Amino acid sequence: MPTRLLILEDDDRIRAALRLALTDEGYDVRALASAEDALAVVGTEPIDLMLVDLMLGGMDGFTFIRTVRPTTDAPIIVLSARADTHDIVAALEAGADDYVTKPYEVKEVTARLRALRRRSERIAPSGDKERLVLDREHGPLLFDAGAGQVVRGTEPVPVTVTEFRLLTELASPPGRVRSRQSLLESVWDRGFFGDDRIVDVHVRRLRTKIEVEPSAPRLIVTVRGLGYRLDPQ
Amino acid sequence: MIDRRPGRTGGTRRGLGLRSTVALSFAGGAFLLSAVLSLGTYLVAQGYLVSQRELGATGAAFVDASYVREGLLRGDRPVSDVLGELSLPADSTLFVELDDEWYSTSLSLDSEVVPTEIAKLVDDGSAGVGWTSVDGVPSVVVGLPLPALGGGSFYELTETAELDRTLRTIAVVLFGFAALTALGGAGLGSRAARRALTPLDSIAGTAARIAGGDLETRLDRTHDPDLITIVGSFNSMVDALHERIERDARFNADVSHELRSPLTTLTTSVQILQRRRDELTPVSREALDLAVAELKRFRSVLEDLLELGRLDAGVELRESAQVDAHELVRQALTASGRSTDLLAPTSDDGRKLTVEVDKQQLNRALVNLFENADLHGGGLVGVRVGSTDESVIIDVDDHGPGVPKVDRKRMFERFVRGGSRRSLPGAGLGLSLVAETARSHGGGVTCTDAPAGGARFTLWLPLVDPEFSRRSP
Lengths: 233, 473
Hints:
A: alpha/beta; Rossmann fold; Arc Repressor Mutant, subunit A; 2 domains; 21% strand; B: Helix Hairpins; Heat Shock Protein 90
């Protein structure tokens, strides 16, 4: 079954060209110009991946991402102007998984899409029954690689596909320091020139979901100058 | 930007500075004034003290003379006895002339010390007062006739060493006072000049900061009526300059943004065609290849423009990370599809050369240097990473004819291309982006001759010590 891709872009020509190019690459594309329409589609149709432009008439891209994030864990890639560097961080904080800057090339977009899609398939239940108790005192908080979810007590914690992948990397094995560079490579398929802030924002997002006190993290700790480490409690 | 160095205030460099001139004038004026006053004071004091001394001596002489006269009239006693009965102060000496015979209370002094003009006055029957010098000590001489004794004269000589000392003390005090006043004047002048020059100093400092790129700097508002005009003009000049630079930057940014969307559409569409290249006729294929190549160039120029716009807007480094310079160069070579064999093996015995940079900006700068070597320098020959105590140095050598000395600074300005290479592609933005990226990272770029012929572009960046400045992740 082809991957269902939603494109939210209000520039008619860019949208048309993207739709053509990505359909040509084999994606099942839904291309929309307004965030309101896109919200309706996400509510009714299964969507695997999203490409979202930030500057839209009506509801903007940030609001769209914030609104849609709690309802789906599908990866969201932001189409951004490189100059708007604060926008990129804001979009990541709103819940986006990665970004591409304009003017982009199709192969950049498909590379990002492939990376995120591949990972989102990886968390589908498999034979791997690896389970890890992250926090015995509070919950307990359980990282269940086999089921592809994080559970506190009996309640699943709503982590996105990418957040789960990040946790998986940090958990293999737990207690080992991972540099941002290596996380960027293994979770996002980004090379040397990748943006460390993607890692930082995702760690921040993950902390708000699994830490008891996100401002004083004990599970995912920052190792000054080196990176991050998962310390099960 | 034109190299305008602050601080060259012509004229004051040769000869004395304004401050010294004012200080010297104040000192000279103060000294002249106090010297005239002191001299006047001295003369008045001297006149008063001398006349007081003369009056005192005259009074004493009358008393002594009448005593001598009485003594001589009372009996037929020898003159020396009468003189001996007088109790005189130690610095006074009496001379009596009677019947052409001189008598004196001193053994060492004789009548020669009496000035002749006083002796003449006394001979004519009147009293006389005058000055003489006894062994260098000024002395006052009072002469009186003694008519009651039938002709004869009386002289009293008083040494006035203490008067001389007093006058000398006054002179010293007054001269000292004049000198102090001159010094005070110099200090006051210097202060006044400094006070007057402070606004100029602050203007020079502000101008230097503005030239250094801090366009938000303004002179503080003032209520000093003498300064309002200059401060106002200066600030409005900077405002105008700032506005102009901002307008240029905004225009640059607006144009780039406007071009971004159509370029995205074009690139995306052309890439669809490229994917379906096999379906095209040979002619269409050739046309497509041209379009692809030109789009690539267009995109590269636009990205340079966007990057320059960001640097112009003074946005802080987007994302600064500490990386090893060797790794940075290796990755830039790989990312631009070049062989890492071009990177010369290090002679730094594997020492990590850490720089703190925005990786993407530096990548763009390095790739621009590589492309410049390929397009204008007959091909990239090699890249070498070295270091000094404080900097990391990246040499990029090419194989071309080198760059004439006159072009070596100019070529880092925007849209400048070497005259001999006009027909070659490259909009001339690349090197200016390299220069501005280096500058925004606290480094720089220069062009020299490569040892093996060709040009060498040297990019240097501040070396950071990761042990001391490790940033928090």
